[in-house]
Amino acid sequence: MARITASVYTSHVPAIGAALDLGKTAEPYWKPVFDGYEFGKRWIAADPPDVIFLVYNDHATAFSLDLIPTFAIGTAADYPMSDEGWGPRPVPRVAGHPELAAHIAQSVIQDDFDLTIVNRMEVDHGLTVPLSLMFGQPAAWPCPVIPFAVNVVQYPVPSGRRCFLLGQAIRKAIESYERPLRVQVWGTGGMSHQLQGPRAGLINREWDNRFLDRLVAEPEALAQVPHIEYVREAGSEGIELVMWLIARGAMADVAGGPAPNVLHRFYHVPASNTAVGHLILANG
Amino acid sequence: MALDKPYLDVPGTTIFDADQSHKGYWLNQFCMSLMKAGNREDFLADPRACLDRWPMTEAQKQAVLARDLNRCIAEGGNIYFLAKLGATHGMSFQQMAGSMTGMTEEEYRDMMIAGGRGIEGNRYLGEDGSAQPQRQPQGNAKKPGF
Asked: In the CATH hierarchy, which top-level class contains the domain A3-275?
């Protein structure tokens, strides 16, 4: 049977992708950011997963205002890079895993989560920057990826509680797949940041670190935090952090298993407008 | 029943809800068109003529022409859509975000390097943090917009 081996959490700031693509990683501004991912790169290269289930948000790329799915699962065989206005990032196309994705969609929908199924979709920096941070600049990504897009563009986004429950349904789905795949679930976005209005540039270091503490130790209680607290304390775009609760909900301890091992934790301010957070949790 | 909006008392912040989305539909859809290089070239060659092909309000068009993202947001724009407009003009996300504060590019970048905007005084309207209406503009930018 398939099993979830670990969950990875990371911000997905577009400027990080640009810094990598333009060869700026050793510059004093960027070096501390990329240093924070050195452990993760070594760890994942030593023991790569068979598939990554990657939770991210589409930034008005595949989904315009014509169609705004709350939860969308990619069931395609591959996903081209989008042009977000600066030209497409020079990174490999993303290969999907249609068979596992279809299995997850069927299981999770039957568990009462109404997913939108997407067979054709371009992906943006929300998906590719995490891959770049963990894998660097390979000619091809080392494993297939199932994109899972969450609406955090138009209010209301799904609640933390809903995301945490969804993560549990995703775990059940993955672990009922009959092939012996080793799957990682990634939660991306955040941490505190605001990209709009006179409050742009908001950072809340104390709130972010408390979020990381609670994500590890008491995710169920953290999932009860209402939208307005994210907006007020972590900035209007900090609400992306609800996506981390999907990945956390998929970990074994939530279903009665042992507590995860915290393999790595990193926090840095700033990358462009944003506080960068990164966490790796492994199931025992 | 009116929409429940618990977020209206956050200073310097416009939450992109269903009302904003309705108001800004064509402005945001215009921005989506800038995801194609040919459309970006058309826009840069004659911005006004390009905008006139969209059923946008005059206020929306003027906000786009002024490159004033606060005005674009007031007219229903959302930052993830407006980012395509900034990108078309060669702006980074940091330049766009900073342009909404009244700070110069250097002032805003320095604020971020120093740890970003603090939360104290910036949670609720009526406090006295840097994002409050009575504290605008915050820096020495010569004009609104990027």
From this structure: alpha beta
B86 lies in a domain?
yes
For A117-153, b/e burial (b = at least 16 CB within 10 A) is ebeebbbbbbbbbbbbbbbeeeeebebbbbbbbbbbb
In angstroms, the CA A86 to CA A50 distance is 32
pLDDT at A284: 84
A217-272 pLDDT per residue, tens: 999 999 999 999 999 999 999 999 999 999 999 999 999 999 999 999 999 999 99
The domain of B42 spans 16-90
Residue B1 has pLDDT above 80, yes or no: no
Residues of A in contact with B86 (CB under 8 A): 85
Cβ contacts of A237 on chain B, cutoff 8 Å: 79
User: Which of A197, A236, A273 has the CB atom closest to B93's CB atom?
Assistant: A273
Contact assignment for A199 to B93 by CB distance below 8 Å = no
**Domain finish residue from B66, B90, B114:** B90
Interface with chain A: mutation pick from B5, B72, B92, B94, highest number of A CBs within 10 Å: B94
Provide the shortest C-alpha distance from residue B108 to chain A (in Å): 8
| Position A167 pLDDT exceeds 80 | yes
| B100–A83 CB contact, under 8 Å | no
Instruction: Kindly state the percentage of chain B with pLDDT values over 70.
Output: 99
Report, as an integer, the average pLDDT of A189-210.
98
CATH number of the domain at B35, please.
1.10.700.10
Please report the pLDDT score of residue B6 as a whole number.
93
Overall number of domains in chain B: 2
Please give the interface size between A and B, counted as residue pairs whose CB atoms are below 8 Å apart.
Answer: 168
**Rounded mean pLDDT of chain A?**
97
Q: Is B21 found in the same domain as B75?
A: yes
Model confidence at B63: pLDDT above 90? yes
Strand A94-95 relative to strand A78-79: parallel, antiparallel, unpaired?
A: antiparallel
| Same domain flag for B105 and B83 | no
In a domain, B146, yes or no: no
DSSP assignment of B8-72 = TTSTT-----HHHHHHTHHHHHHHHHTTSHHHHHHHHH-HHHHHTTS---HHHHHHHHTT-HHHH
Identify all chain A residues contacting B81, using CB atoms and an 8 Å cutoff: 60, 64-65
Q: To which residue do tokens 């209206």 refer?
A: B8
